[in-house]
Specification:
The complex is a heterodimer of chains A (about 120) and B (about 120).
Chain A lengths: L2 E3 L4 E5 L4 E3 L2 E3 L4 E8 L5 E7 L5 E3 L5 E5 L4 E6 L8 E9 L8 E2 L3 E6 L1
Chain B lengths: L4 E3 L2 E4 L5 E6 L6 E8 L3 E9 L2 E5 L6 E5 L5 E5 L8 E8 L10 E2 L3 E5 L1
Parallel strand pairs in B: 2-11
Antiparallel strand pairs in B: 1-3, 3-8, 4-5, 4-9, 5-6, 7-8, 9-10, 9-11
The chains are: A mainly beta (about 120), B mainly beta (about 120).
Chain lengths: ~120, ~120
């Protein structure tokens, strides 16, 4: 079975400060990991993915994520938050060894960036 | 704009009724995925179609069914509706049938309200 956890329902950060949105996962094989963002009344938008290779993945809008196999984590980061980054962020995982598995999404973390 | 079109945007109906949600995937995408997003269940994968054939099934109720047509658009049919079916229903598409290698592109969803 595969699962993903986002331990924080909400993260508050001041504009200009660095932000981190946490994600931990559980799979039996190699993980394929994704971050998506959802703005109000919109569908999810792809930010970045980790399949293999460099543990630091760079994505859209200045976001990056660090894959840590020993801690089974894939935290989303950004050096300097913008008010426009305020949205709902979803981490998703898929077991790379099982082609039949679908993406499993975390419960989401609401990011609030205050001016 | 993701290129995925969902209609209608809003749907209000009564318990026991049947509705059809429609999705046009992004041009060139062969896979269509359906998800249900609710406050208590989060984002749940329902079903995937690839090039007209069912590819994978998730937490889809027996009262729900879907199909993908030769022009690759898809429909999700929900019958014998219950109050608990009120949710946002998203369609997503991707280039191929493997959800692990390519990002999914989401439509803006259909908000279904059961009265």
């Amino acid at each position: 079975a595969q699962s993903v956890a986002q331990p924080e329902d909400q993260v508050n950060v001041a504009e200009g400060n660095p932000l981190t949105v946490k994600c931990t996962y559980s799979v039996s094989g190699n993980p394929y990991l994704f971050w998506y963002v959802q703005y109000p009344n919109r569908g999810l938008q792809f930010l970045l993915k980790y399949i293999t290779g460099d543990n630091l993945v760079k994505g859209s809008y200045g976001f990056e994520a660090e894959f840590n196999k020993s801690q089974t984590s894939f935290h989303l980061k950004k050096p300097s938050a913008l008010v426009s980054d305020s949205a709902l962020y979803f981490c998703a995982v898929r077991d790379g060894y099982n082609a039949g598995n679908m993406l499993t999404f975390g419960g989401g973390t609401r990011l609030m960036v205050k001016p | 704009d993701s290129g995925v079109t969902q209609t209608p945007k809003h749907l209000i109906t009564a318990t026991g009724q049947r509705v059809t949600l429609r999705c046009s995937p992004r041009s060139g995408d062969l896979s269509v995925y359906w998800y249900q997003q609710s406050l208590d269940q989060g984002l749940q994968f329902l079903i995937q179609y690839y090039n007209g054939e069912e590819r994978a099934k998730g937490n889809i109720l027996e009262r729900f069914s879907a199909q993908q047509f030769p022009d690759l658009h898809s429909e999700l049919n929900l019958s014998s509706l219950e109050l608990g079916d009120s949710a946002l229903y998203f369609c997503a598409s991707s280039v191929d049938g493997d959800p692990g290698n390519q990002p999914q592109h989401f439509g803006d969803g259909t908000r279904l309200s059961i009265l």
